[in-house]
Specification:
Helix content: 40-55%
Structural class: alpha/beta
GO biological process, one term: regulation of apoptotic process
Number of strands: 20
Distance between the termini: 42 Å
Bound molecules: adenosine-5'-triphosphate
Shape: flat
Keywords: ATP-binding, Cell membrane, Cytoplasm, Immunity, Innate immunity, Leucine-rich repeat, Lipoprotein, Membrane, Nucleotide-binding, Palmitate, Repeat, Ubl conjugation
Strand content: 5-15%
Pfam family, one: LRR_6
Radius of gyration: 33 Å
Mean pLDDT: 86
Strand order of the largest sheet: 10-11-12-13-14-15-16-17-18-19-20
Number of helices: 48
InterPro entries: CARD (IPR001315), DEATH-like_dom_sf (IPR011029), Leu-rich_rpt (IPR001611), LRR_dom_sf (IPR032675), NACHT_NTPase (IPR007111), NLR (IPR051261), NLRP_HD2 (IPR041267), NOD1/2_WH (IPR041075)
Largest sheet: 11 strands, parallel
CATH superfamily of the largest domain: Ribonuclease Inhibitor
CATH architecture of the largest domain: Alpha-Beta Horseshoe
CATH topology of the largest domain: Leucine-rich repeat, LRR (right-handed beta-alpha superhelix)
CATH class of the largest domain: Alpha Beta
Family: Belongs to the NOD1-NOD2 family.
Length: 985
C-alpha cells in the first residue's frame, strides 16, 4: 500500500495515536522531524501549530496538509510517527515499508535559518539545559526582548516546548538572531554525542528509580486494608470488576468502561485537560480500583507506556503542613531516589507524557479546590494544596496525566472545568456480587447459602451492589445465616452486624460465645471509638495519632478489637504508629453510635448534624472548626465533609429506629433516647417539607413537577433507615405534584428501596421519572411497592433486562393507576414483548408503551401484536430503533387496524421496507384515531410511499407521516411532497 493510502486509511488511528497521550509532545516532535526534512516549510508549520487550538484540530490540519503534499510527504510522516511514538501508542498503526526509513537531517546548509530547521530535532534535545544561557546572550545582543524571553519561559511549557518556542522566536527574528544562537550553542559544546551519552546515563538512573518505585508500590498494593489483618486474601484473590461508566451522557446507552479506558481516549470532554476523575458513592470501590491500577502497573502488565507512577493519598497529604517543592512532594511522599535526584526530576519535567500521578480521596482533602492562586514553578516551594490544585489544573507540570478519585457530589464546578473526563464507579453488578461472594468463601456450599439468603432478601441484595457492604455481608455470613428471614434490611442493620461479628470473634477467643447483651458488654470500647470517630469527622481527620487515641481514652484492648488498623506510611510526633478505621463508613457508624448512646453529648449536636448534612455546599467551605461543637453560638452547624456527615446522620436515623430501640436501651438512658428520636423525626419532616416548598409553581398549562434537589435522596434514605412508616407517611402526605423527576441522580437499588418505602404513601399518583440512573432489575423489584402510586414510570437508560420487565408487568397489571411506561435504551429482547402483550390484554386502561432502542425483532413485534389486538386503551406505541422489519410492521399494522384509541405510532429506524409500508397503508385507511405516524430512517421506497399517499386520501385523522431518511431520490421527494402535504421528508 502506498504511503498516501496508509495515511488516508489510518487517519482516525493516527489522530488517536498522536493525541491519546494527553500531551502535544509527540505531535511537536513529528513537526520537528518534518521541518528538519523540509517537508514542512516555516509557513506550513505556523498554520498547523496554533497553541490556542485543541491538539486534535492541529493534528487534523497536519494530516490534511501532508496528504496534499503527496507520497513522499506521507512516507516521511509515517516514518516520523513511527520514530516518535512509544510501542504501546502505535500498536494499532501499520507503517508498511516506511517504518524502516531513517529520518536524518538534510545535511549542512549555508544559511543559518536552514540549519535551524534541518537540525531542529537535535537542537530541541540538546538545548534544553542551556535555555537560560541562550536567552541571556540573545537578550544582551538585542536579538530578543525581555517580553520575548518571558513568553518563551512561561512555566506552563515543558523544557522541550520552551526550546521550540525559542527556536521559533529566533527564526522569526531573522538570520542574525539565528547565528547568535547557533554560535552560543557551539560554544557550550552542545554536541549530540555528549548529549546522547548523558541521556543514556539518565535512563539508567531513571530505570533504577522506576524499579524502586515499582517494588514499593507492589508492597503497598498487595493487600486490601479491609483484609489487612487476616492475610487471607491478596488483592488478586478478591478483586472483582466494578461497573464503570462515563458520567456524562453521550446521547446513547451508557458506555461501560474497562480499567484501560480510564486513561484512554473514550469519553474525553476536554482534550486540553490531563485530569480524569473517578467518582462514586462511599464504599463503591474507588480506592480499590486505584490500588488495582497501581498493582498492575508495578507488575509491568498495565499502562506500559507510563514510566513512573506517583500514588498520593489525600488523607496523607492532609497531614503535610510544610511548604514543599514539587520535587519534595514526589520524592518524600512517594519514593526517594537512591541517586541522581536532580537528573531524575529533570527527566520527569522533560517527559511529562511518561508520568502518571494518582490522588485518592479528594473528598477527604481539607481544602476545597480553587484555581485562584497560580503556582507554575516546579522548583519553588508551596503549600500542599497549592501544589495539588495547580497539578490538577495543569498549570504545574502540564502534560502529566492525573487520576483523582472522589465521592460523587464532592467535586464542584471549579474543578470540573479542568477535567478531561469523569468516570462513575457504580459498584458491583448482580454478577459481580455473586463473583465476589464466591471469591470470599473458600467453601462453595457456604457461598451458595449466602447467595441464597441474599436472593430471599432483595433489600439486602440491593445493598450488596455497594462493595463495602458486600464485603461486610460476606464477612458476617455466620451472623447473616443465623438471622431470621428478612433481616437485615437497612445499612444500619448491616453495620450492627459487623460490630457484632468483631465482638463475637473477640469473645470466641476469650470465653467462647457472644451474649445477647453484647453491646452493653463492650460499651466502653464503643464509646471510646465513637468519641474518636466523631471528633475526627468534625475536623476531617481520618488518621489518628497516639495522642488522639489517648484523648478519647482508646485503650490497647479497644484497638485489639480490629476496627482500627495501622495507617501505612504515617507516624506521629513520637514516631509511633497512627491508626485509621477499617473503612471511613465505619468511622461514621461509630460517630453515630456515640451521638445516640452518649449522655453527655451537646443537646444541639443532632440538629447541627442534620443541618450540616442538608447543606451540600458546605463541603466547599472546608475549614477546621473543631471548636464549633464547643462553641455556644446556637446557629453554627457541624463542619466536616458533607458526604460523611450525611452518612453519619443516616446511621443516627437508623440507630434511633423502633427496630433497634430495645437493644440500644440496654445501654442508654430512655429519656435521652426518646428525646433524640423526636429530634431526628422533626429534622427529617422539616427537611422534606422545606424541600417540597422549594418546588416552583407550574407554568400555566404544564404539570406541577418536582426535580429532586441535592439532599433529597439523602433525606429519603434517612427516613428509610428509621423504618418508621408514620414518618414516611407524614413526609409525603402534603406533597402535591404530578411529576417527580430524579434523572441523573445516581440511583441504584439501595436508593430504589428507600424511595419506594416513602413514595408508597403518596396520596395522589405521580409520574415517576428515573431516566439515566442505575436501577437495574434488582432496583425494579425494589420499586414495586410504590407502583400503585405511579401513573407513569420513566426508566430510560437503566440497564433493565427482560427479567425486570417481568416483575413490573406482574405487579403493574394489579395497579389501577399505572398507565404509562418508557423503557428506551435498556436491554430488552423479544422475551419482554410476551410480558407486554399480557399487560395490554389484561389492563384495559394502559395508555403508553415506549420501548425504543432495545433489541426487539419481528418475532417480538408479532407477540406484541397479539396484545395490541386486545387492547382497548393504548394511545402511544414507540418502537424506535429496534429491528422489527417488514414482518413486524405487517403484524403490528394488522393488529392495530381495529384500534379505536391509538394516537401515535413510531417505527423509526426499524428496517421497514415497502411491504411494511403497504401494510401500514391499510392501517391508515382504517384508523379513525391515529394522528402521527413516524417512519423515518427505514427502507421504504417509492412504491411504499405511493400506497401511503393513496391511503391518506381516505383518512382525515392523521396529521403527519414522517418519512425522512428512506429510499427516495430528491426528485421523488419533491414530487411526493406535492401530492400529499401531510408527508414530511
Ligand atoms: N473491586 C473490588 N473487589 C473486591 N472488593 C472490593 C472492591 N471494591 C471495594 N471492595 C471492598 O470494599 C471496601 C471499600 O472499598 P473502597 O475503600 O475502595 O471504597 P471507596 O469508594 O474508596 O470508599 P470511600 O469513598 O468511602 O473512601 C474495600 O476495602 C474492599 O473490601
Amino acid at each position: 500500500m502506498s504511503a498516501l493510502q496508509l495515511v488516508l486509511k489510518q487517519r482516525p488511528a493516527l489522530l488517536r495515536a498522536l493525541c491519546c497521550g494527553g500531551t502535544s509532545e509527540p505531535f511537536e516532535c513529528v513537526l520537528d522531524l518534518l521541518l528538519s526534512r523540509g517537508i514542512l516549510v516555516w509557513e506550513d508549520y505556523q498554520s498547523v501549530q496554533i497553541p490556542t487550538r485543541p491538539l486534535t484540530s492541529n493534528v487534523r490540519d497536519l494530516l490534511d496538509l501532508v496528504y496534499t503534499k503527496g507520497e513522499e510527504a506521507c512516507s516521511l510522516l509515517l516514518a516520523a510517527v513511527g520514530q516518535v511514538l512509544p510501542e504501546a501508542q502505535k500498536a494499532d498503526l501499520s507503517f508498511g515499508k516506511f517504518s524502516s526509513m531513517i529520518l536524518d537531517s538534510r545535511g549542512p546548509s549555508t544559511r543559518s535559518i536552514q540549519t535551524l530547521l534541518a537540525d531542529r530535532p537535535a537542537l530541541v534535545q540538546n538545548c534544553r539545559e542551556h535555555i537560560d544561557g541562550a536567552l541571556e546572550v540573545l537578550l544582551e545582543t538585542g536579538c530578543l526582548s525581555t517580553k520575548d524571553c518571558d513568553e518563551i519561559q512561561l512555566p506552563v511549557y515543558t523544557p522541550s516546548q520552551q526550546v521550540r518556542r525559542l527556536l521559533d522566536q529566533v527564526a522569526f527574528k531573522g538570520e542574525h538572531a539565528v547565528q547568535t544562537l547557533l554560535q552560543y550553542l557551539d560554544q557550550v559544546q552542545v554536541t549530540s554525542g555528549a548529549s546522547q551519552k548523558k541521556e543514556k546515563q539518565l535512563s539508567a538512573e531513571c530505570l533504577q528509580y522506576q524499579k524502586k518505585l515499582q517494588s514499593s508500590i507492589l508492597a503497598q498494593s498487595h493487600f486490601l486494608s479491609t483484609y489487612g489483618g487476616t492475610g487471607r486474601f491478596s488483592l488478586d484473590d478478591i478483586y472483582t470488576d466494578g461497573l464503570l461508566e462515563l458520567a456524562q451522557d453521550c446521547g446513547k446507552s451508557p458506555v461501560t468502561l474497562s480499567l484501560e479506558d480510564v486513561l484512554g481516549l473514550v469519553g474525553t470532554l476536554n482534550e486540553e485537560a490531563d485530569t480524569v476523575l473517578i467518582s462514586g458513592k462511599a464504599g463503591s470501590g474507588k480506592s480499590t480500583l486505584l490500588q488495582r491500577l497501581h498493582l498492575l502497573w508495578a507488575r509491568g502488565t498495565f499502562l506500559t507506556d507510563i514510566l513512573l507512577v506517583f500514588p498520593f493519598s489525600c488523607r496523607k497529604l492532609n497531614t503535610e503542613r510544610r511548604k514543599l517543592s514539587l520535587k519534595e512532594l514526589l520524592f518524600l511522599h512517594c519514593c526517594w531516589p537512591d541517586c541522581g535526584q536532580d537528573q531524575i526530576f529533570q527527566f520527569i519535567l522533560d517527559h511529562p507524557n511518561l508520568v502518571l500521578f494518582t490522588f485518592d480521596g479528594l473528598d477527604e482533602f481539607k481544602h476545597s479546590f480553587s484555581d485562584e492562586e497560580r503556582h507554575c514553578c516546579p522548583t519553588q516551594p508551596a503549600s500542599v494544596h497549592m501544589l495539588l490544585f495547580n497539578l490538577l489544573q495543569g498549570s504545574l507540570m502540564k502534560g502529566v496525566r492525573k487520576v483523582v478519585t472522589s465521592r460523587t457530589w464532592a467535586v464542584g464546578p471549579a474543578l470540573m472545568r479542568y477535567l478531561r473526563k469523569e468516570v462513575l464507579l457504580k459498584g458491583f453488578s448482580p454478577r459481580g456480587i455473586e463473583c465476589f461472594v464466591r471469591k470470599h468463601h473458600n467453601d462453595p456450599s457456604m457461598a451458595d447459602r449466602v447467595l441464597e439468603s441474599l436472593q430471599s432478601n432483595t433489600a439486602l441484595l440491593g445493598l450488596c451492589h455497594v462493595p463495602v457492604l458486600c464485603w461486610i455481608v460476606s464477612k458476617c455470613s455466620k451472623e447473616l445465616l443465623d438471622c431470621d428471614k428478612g433481616s437485615p434490611q437497612t445499612i444500619t442493620d448491616v453495620y450492627l452486624m459487623i460490630l457484632q461479628h468483631f465482638f463475637h470473634r473477640q469473645n470466641l477467643q476469650v470465653q467462647g460465645t457472644l451474649r445477647a447483651g453484647w453491646l452493653k458488654e463492650h460499651f466502653d470500647t464503643v464509646m471510646h471509638l465513637g468519641q474518636l470517630a466523631l471528633e475526627g469527622l468534625e475536623t476531617s481527620c481520618y488518621v489518628f495519632s497516639g495522642a488522639d487515641l489517648q484523648r478519647s481514652k482508646v485503650t490497647q484492648k479497644d484497638v485489639s478489637m480490629g476496627f482500627l488498623i495501622v495507617s501505612e506510611g504515617f507516624t506521629d510526633a513520637s514516631n509511633c504508629n497512627c491508626y485509621e478505621f477499617l473503612h471511613i463508613t465505619l468511622q461514621c457508624f461509630f460517630a453515630a453510635l456515640y451521638i445516640v448512646l452518649s449522655d453527655s453529648i451537646d443537646k444541639s449536636t443532632i440538629l447541627k448534624l442534620f443541618q450540616s448534612s442538608c447543606k451540600q455546599e458546605s463541603s466547599l467551605r472546608k475549614v477546621c472548626l473543631k471548636h464549633c461543637l464547643e462553641s455556644s453560638l446556637e446557629n453554627r452547624t457541624l463542619t466536616g465533609e458533607t458526604p460523611n456527615l450525611q452518612i453519619t446522620a443516616k446511621f443516627v436515623s437508623g440507630l434511633l429506629s423502633h427496630h433497634h430501640r430495645d437493644f440500644l436501651l440496654q445501654s442508654c438512658v430512655p429519656q435521652t433516647f426518646e428525646w433524640k428520636t423526636k429530634q431526628v423525626t422533626k429534622c427529617l419532616s422539616k427537611g422534606i417539607q422545606k424541600h417540597f416548598k422549594s418546588i416552583p409553581k407550574p407554568v400555566e398549562g404544564e404539570k406541577k413537577s418536582m426535580h429532586a434537589m441535592p439532599g433529597f435522596m439523602w433525606l429519603i434514605k434517612c427516613i428509610y433507615e428509621m423504618q418508621e412508616s408514620s414518618i414516611a407517611k407524614g413526609a409525603v402526605a402534603k406533597l402535591e405534584v404530578e411529576h417527580l423527576k430524579l434523572t441523573y441522580c445516581n440511583i441504584g437499588p439501595v436508593e430504589c428501596t428507600a424511595l419506594a418505602y416513602v413514595l408508597q404513601h403518596l396520596r395522589t399518583p405521580v409520574g415517576f421519572q428515573l431516566d439515566y440512573n442505575s436501577v437495574g432489575d434488582v432496583g425494579v423489584e425494589q420499586l414495586l411497592p410504590c407502583l400503585h402510586t405511579c401513573h407513569s414510570l420513566y426508566l430510560r437508560n437503566n440497564n433493565i433486562s427482560d427479567e425486570g420487565v417481568r416483575k413490573i408487568v406482574e405487579r403493574g397489571i394489579h395497579c389501577d393507576n399505572f398507565k404509562k411506561i418508557a423503557l428506551f435504551n435498556n436491554r430488552l429482547t423479544d422475551v419482554s414483548t410476551q410480558y407486554f402483550a399480557h399487560l395490554l390484554k389484561t389492563k384495559q386502561n394502559f395508555l403508553s408503551l415506549r420501548l425504543g432502542n432495545n433489541s426487539i425483532t419481528s418475532e417480538g413485534a408479532e407477540q406484541l401484536a397479539e396484545g395490541l389486538r386486545n387492547s382497548q386503551s393504548l394511545q402511544y406505541l414507540g418502537l424506535w430503533g429496534n429491528e422489527i422489519e417488514d414482518k413486524g410492521a405487517e403484524a403490528l399494522a394488522n393488529a392495530l387496524q381495529d384500534s379505536t384509541t391509538l394516537l401515535w405510532l413510531s417505527l423509526v429506524d426499524n428496517g421497514v421496507g415497502n411491504a411494511g409500508a403497504r401494510a401500514l397503508a391499510e392501517l391508515v385507511k382504517k384508523t379513525r384515531t391515529l394522528e402521527e405516524l413516524w417512519l423515518s430512517k427505514n427502507r421504504i421506497g417509492r412504491d411504499g410511499v405511493d400506497c401511503l399517499i393513496h391511503a391518506l386520501k381516505m383518512n382525515s385523522s392523521i396529521k403527519s407521516v414522517w418519512l425522512r431518511g428512506n429510499n427516495l431520490s430528491p426528485e421523488d421527494v419533491e414530487e411526493l411532497t406535492k401530492q400529499e402535504s401531510r408527508l414530511t421528508f
